Amino acid sequence: MRAVRASMLTLRVRDVVRATPRSLIVQLELGGTPLEYQAGQALRVGLSGQPVRRPYSLALAPHEARASGLLELLVGLDVDESPGSHLAGLGPDTLVDVESPAGTFCFPTQPRERHFLFVAGGTGIAPLRAMVHEALARDQDWSVSLVYSARTAEEFAYGDELRGLAKARRIRLWQTVTREPAEAWSGRRGRIALSHLEEMVQVRETLCFVCGPHALVEDVPRLLLQIGIASGRIRVEDWGNG
């Protein structure tokens, strides 16, 4: 069946599970209608029939959505642990309206590079997870590295999955926490620094994707420039306060 572009679809929620203390993984059933998009793109989502919709990056690569018949979103929660009034009462079987996927922050169809660095903060991991899966499916000889920063160890969404990929040597993974007490985390600590990126960048011809809170997408590109990455190889997406 040929994939289609639709300006608006109404989809049923398959499942909602807690990803981290501040986010939910939401699966949407495509209902037999393939949806065309690129890894890294987002769609606007809200309860069916009400006008407010907010953007969420698709956390599955396109080939995974086709195979499973599902879309997957990482939805951040407010301080009251609610996703917001536009998704109030969200749960299995809830109907939501989604606008067509959009955005230019996406993995290229035919990249010239063979080395890729993804830098995520908080819920900014969602589009980068889709891109990582896309890159791994495209070419096993590509080099894929991920730097992931979160406030605490509990806030690494998809943490077990990513550590599994690193253990299998499919990706190089570097995680750091900024607010975790010393007794609760034995790994790296502190904000992403120049030395950390130098460790993860193997060659200067590396295509870099950065997504997360405003401070991260301000700081990381500047650091990448300092280690010799050309500005044309640095792509950013400011993803709120994730």
Give a description of the structure.
By secondary structure, the protein is of the alpha/beta class. The protein folds into two domains: 8-99, Translation factors (Elongation Factor Tu (Ef-tu), domain 3); 115-238, 3-Layer(aba) Sandwich (Rossmann fold), CATH 3.40.50.80. The chain is built from five helices and twelve strands. The strands form two sheets. Strands 4-3-6-1-2-5 form a six-stranded antiparallel sheet. The protein has a six-stranded parallel sheet with strand order 10-9-8-7-11-12, with helices on both faces. Helix 5 (214-226) links the parallel strand 11 (206-212) and strand 12 (234-238).
What labels describe this entry?
242 residues, alpha/beta, Elongation Factor Tu (Ef-tu), domain 3, Rossmann fold, six-stranded parallel β-sheet, 21% helix, globular, disordered N terminus
Biggest pleated-sheet summary = 6 strands, antiparallel
Order of helices and strands: EEEEHEEEHEHEEHEHE
CATH superfamily of the largest domain: Nucleotide-binding domain of ferredoxin-NADP reductase (FNR) module
Anisotropy-based shape:
globular
Estimated helix fraction: 10-25%
- What spatial order of strands do you see in the largest sheet? 4-3-6-1-2-5
Rg, Å, rounded: 18 Å
CATH architecture of the largest domain: 3-Layer(aba) Sandwich
- Number of extended strands: 12
Low-pLDDT sequence parts: 1-5
Look at the helices and sheets and give the structural class: alpha/beta
- Separation, N- and C-terminal Cα atoms: 36 Å
